[in-house]
Design goal:
The protein has 431 residues and is mainly alpha-helical. The protein is built from 16 helices and four strands. Helices cover 70% and strands 4% of the residues. The chain has a four-stranded mixed beta sheet, sandwiched between helices. The structure holds zinc ion. Zinc ion binds next to helix 9 and helix 13.
Length: 431
């Protein structure tokens, strides 16, 4: 491969992924707008026209922002690679009076600031314009800034040691450095699993043990029926930031915690909370979580092997805008290879997104089946309809957009599937 050929491959892949992104977003906007004035028949008994229109407008607003963000990201990526942005940063770090390992760290820091500066206005707009307009935002600017500072501190505290270790391995561990780096990555992931519920999440939210309530009784009897032991049931003050509700597991082994957003408990009846948790239990019992972990381990191994190969190929650097004079021997600045790789990889993996989405949707169907065996199918349906309404999730997504991205099946398909499982009427939506 020559540098020019690789540049061409990169530009074509970038143009294709941006084109597909924008095309799908436009389809989604058109489809949702076309169905804005009629609630799908299956939901008429439960969702009013005002809520349906709100979901349509919310979806369109988010899509428009996503389109702008995609264009800004593509321009920035071109500027940083072929436009010489990263090359300029690398040239600057060459003048620093520190060792090569710290030059790489300085390069990551500056590039990180550049990328953050471009993406922050979009996150700000999403929270304080879109979420605000639709009544979901509960954050103040000062909480947003505090979150940002804490997130940065956590990223440095956890990310910097990992980055240093990987760069050090790339330099010193020989041709099989990527195997060692993979081992380090696996240990790091495990560490996050342990640290997240106990140290990281409490930095951002308050977790209180779930008090005695009808919902708690139902949840405990469900856990007993399914033979599931956990290290506790917690309620998280999700309402501090947003009106969206959720429930999830954290930790692993015996340290598993079950976390409910306070917003979810306020909104759902005890029987519905039980059904939602039964669905989450399904993910766990059917080994979806374990399968995901295994997939991501295999994928990261393949990705690191690819990086090891590319880091030794001069055309990889030159093809992405780093002049050969700047990185004469590829191995002299492994950080440059890593940064280029992290920048370019998503352009190529974007087209794999439908596969991952399809895999995830299959798990959703399976978890729903588990839930209907251990809790009420009707309650699950009612809970889902409430969550769709509360999150202003569209009931009428564009089929192609949904097939490409959605980790969950479209509302109507999912609810029809639950009804089939329960052997009840197609859509038991009436009270
Ligand atoms: Zn699920």
């Amino acid at each position: 491969m020559t540098a020019a050929a690789f540049t061409a491959v990169f530009v074509v892949a970038l143009a294709a992924s941006l084109g597909v992104r924008l095309w799908l977003a436009r389809r989604q906007i058109a489809h949702v707008a076309a169905h804005r004035d009629a609630v799908p028949e299956a939901f008429v008994a439960r969702i009013g026209i005002a809520a349906h229109r709100k979901a349509a407008d919310y979806t369109v607003a988010k899509q428009r922002l996503a389109m702008l963000h995609a264009v800004a990201d593509a321009i920035l990526l071109l500027a940083m690679t072929l436009g010489g942005g990263l090359a300029a940063i690398v040239a600057w770090t060459e003048t620093l009076p520190v060792g090569p390992l710290w030059r790489d760290i300085a390069m990551f820091a500056v590039a990180g600031v550049v990328f953050a500066a471009v993406s922050l206005p979009f996150t700000w707009y999403h929270t304080f314009r879109i979420e605000e307009r639709f009544g979901f935002n509960r954050m103040t600017l000062s909480l947003w800034l505090t979150d940002l500072a804490k997130g940065f501190a956590v990223a440095v505290a956890l990310g910097l040691p990992l980055l240093l270790l990987v760069l050090w391995l790339m330099r010193t561990a020989g041709p099989s450095w990527w195997l060692w780096a993979w081992g380090a990555w696996m240990v790091f992931q495990l560490l996050i699993l342990v640290l997240y519920p106990t140290l990281i999440a409490p930095l951002f939210n308050k977790f209180t043990p779930m008090g005695e309530s009808p919902a708690r009784e139902r949840v405990e009897s469900l856990l007993a029926r399914c033979g599931f032991r956990s290290a506790g049931l917690f309620v998280m003050d999700g309402s501090k930031r947003s009106g969206h509700g959720n429930a999830y597991f954290t930790g692993f082994g015996k340290a598993k915690r079950i976390v409910f957003f306070d917003t979810l408990l306020l909104r759902l009846a005890p029987e519905e909370v039980e059904a939602v948790l039964a669905h989450e239990l399904g993910h766990y019992k059917l080994k979806h979580v374990a399968k995901r972990v295994l997939w991501s381990a295999l994928l990261s191994l393949a990705i690191l092997a690819l990086l090891a190969w590319l880091a030794g190929a001069p055309w990889f650097y030159a093809g992405l805008g780093i002049p050969p004079a700047l990185v004469p021997v590829a191995e002299a600045r492994p950080g440059v290879a890593l940064e280029l790789f992290l920048l370019a990889l998503p352009v190529f993996t974007f087209m794999l997104e439908p596969l991952s989405a399809q895999y995830s949707r299959r798990h959703e169907f399976e978890a729903d089946a588990f839930a209907t065996q251990h809790a009420s199918a009707g309650a699950l349906t009612l809970a889902l309809v409430k969550l769709y309404e509360d999150n202003a999730a569209t009931l009428t997504p564009d089929p192609l957009h949904s097939a490409f991205y959605d980790s969950h099946p479209p509302a109507a398909t999912r609810i029809a599937h639950i009804a089939t499982l329960a052997g009840g009427p197609p859509l038991p939506l009436a009270a």
